[in-house]
Sequence to fold (158 residues):
Amino acid sequence: MSVNHEQLTNFIVEAKRNTYASQDDEASFQPLLNGSKQLEYRSGDYFYRDIYFGSAFFVGQETVEFENCPIWSMVYSGGVIISNADWDIIAPIYSFFREALRLVDTNSIYRGPHHFGSGNFIFDNEYEGTLDCFFGKEIILMNGQKVYRLRYNGGIVR
Fold:
């Protein structure tokens, strides 16, 4: 199956903006896997699903199907790296994180912009590759201290 990269890119951006980045777990559907959160988004023949486990530290996988056939996927793992952090510390980090993820665009489709700052937070995202095959890492600094780290990779399913 030939993948239309432009359509796929636009759909991924739309799906990411309309799931976790804007709705947090409120976008969750009944999960396929016990103990997971599952976010879904559909537009035309495209279907996006993000399944992840955990919150302070989490692992997950995003997939995109076209006409019910998997065509793209990304896996990720990471989270807050502050030992024994309670939700009063974690919540503002993830609130800022969703703010950064809402800035995803067709130039930075994987996890958001290369760099974004707001208040006492900074988000840095480094990646290599193309939609076909890529990897990257992101961090969040709070008051100059690293408080969050995540790694990801993925590409076109062949």
Summary: Helices lie at 5-17, 20-23, 87-101.
